[in-house]
Amino acid sequence: MTELTIIPATQMAIPAEPFVGRHLIAGDWRDSQSGETYERTSPAHGVLVSRMALGAEADAEAAILAARATFDSGVWSRASGKERATVLLRVADLIEQNVERMALLETLESGKPITQSRNEVSGAADLWRYGASLARNITGESHNTLGEDMLGVVVKDPIGVVSVITPWNFPFWILSQKLPFALAAGCTCVVKPSEMTPSTTVMLGELLIEAGMPAGVVNVVLGYGPGVGGLMTTHEAVDMVTFTGSTLVGKAISAAASRTLKKVALELGGKNPQVIFPDADLESAADAVTFGVYFNTGQCCNSGSRIIVHEDIADALTDRVVALSRHVAFGDPLDPRTQVGAIISTQHQGKIDDYVREAVKAGAEIALGGGPLLVPGLDGQFYQPTIVRGVTPEMAIAREEVFGPVLSVLTFRTMDEAIALTNDATYGLSAGVWSE
Length: 436
Prior knowledge:
This protein is α/β, with parallel strands linked by helices. It has 13 helices and 20 strands. Helix content is 39%, strand content 19%.
């Protein structure tokens, strides 16, 4: 344990009272119809962070119908591009004015480092500005070569009501990759954030109202997937579903939405390989591998969670990554020095540990880490930087998304073998190749 770089608890103040969130429906903040609430505890600090309205189908129904009525009214769907852009630019300015407040809540709920949260929130403002620029430049097409006295015109209309379902690993960033662009096109939306990281979405609702967004254009429903998210993917008043999350849930959403022929946009999991050949610059490759596996605590669909390295350089590369990993700062995410924060939940921490333990039982070897991490002064979930060598293709750790700070090392002899190992997974999100 002493060989790792660990940042203990910082003295940064944690809010004395939890952030309280309710549903945003038709421009009004509402309690759940059931009156129920739920609480979110910081995965790093073990303290109460937020208390949220616990939605169910009735709340989702109200939000969907509000979005539908607002879309059909034309207050946003038929507004000019300039009018939409003006509101989106105001939102961007307000986000920039609230970076510290939003970043603190994002870090407390997700466990990610405060420096990363600040970068993601401030960077999201640029996405809203980009959306504003697109709102001003939505154009159709005309075709005058169809024959005498004939003119063809293509008009671009908004799709309609969009259900936006976002994950816990990049709560505000991914929301901002989706929402401003749907709004730029003139759509109305119903947003469901992950129940584990809802606060910045609720805060965005406050900013949207302040920016002058018409009531009912953006509706926010809080709660769990089966009740709230289930209706958002099947309701006949919804025209499109956009979802980022696990492949398992994505498949279920695709199947459910297909019954009413909704347009669906999915961004799902990955088991992303880094293939490293003998002629590669090992220093550069090792640096990239180290960053790729620990960024966002490995809780990232693009995480470089497996390396496929030529057997002649496997030991040298693994040793280099081990050495670099010892200097990656794990610990209190509120400390600006921290590079890797907490695991999102105790359940997920156990899942990560199960993958590692099963790999060892199957014959793999732990080169570094391999278990939960104790951070002085904190009562949360952390996992050691972990490198597992001797991994073979049939092991679950080589094939499934671990979603933690765990690197699997596989080796190859020939180009064909490297390609086969790369493609021996059900995912296809991203990959890297290192060679001179």
